Predict the 3D structure of the following.
Amino acid sequence: MKRIGVLSSHNGSGFDTIVQACEKKVLDAQVVVVVSNNSNAHVLQKAEQKNIPNFIINSKLFPNDDLDEKITTLLQSFDCDIIFLSGYMKKIEHHLLSAYPNAIVNSHPALLPKFGGVGMYGSKVHEAVVNAKEKQSGCTIHFVNEEYDEGEYILQNSIELEEDETIEGLENKIKELESVTIIEALNKLFGQN
């Protein structure tokens, strides 16, 4: 059984997806720890309700610490096999990248390499897709490296856009697609498919 650590800054919809898949035995894994940089992140309460250890690590709480090192040490102490970023808004740094080569996974709500990079997250992505009058969008599950959204792809799934696609409508469709794609990608990664 794989041990998953989750990094999340807000609601953690990817966290929900993974926990449900683990509970339903669709994924032979368990979320063993959640770390957030945001003390008000809703994902912390969700983890608490599931009795999953959860921690806040940010510069306000630890002004004199190397946060990258602190997060890496914490994840290692839980023997995580893989780290999943569920809407984590901080850049992943050197310690964590070198401790978990090809084991840090992110879900991006577009078909990379389009609509990725700094500032491209959440509804901003969908707004850019709609404004560009794209015919397709989707999501990309990829490994994390030193650059935003540039790591090797694990899996991409796509949908066709409606003629009159709205930003909100597209966001809802992509969230639904992401929840399926995340589990598909993790199963592929774990060699369980």
Observations:
- Residues 1-101 form a domain with the Rossmann fold fold (CATH 3.40.50.170).
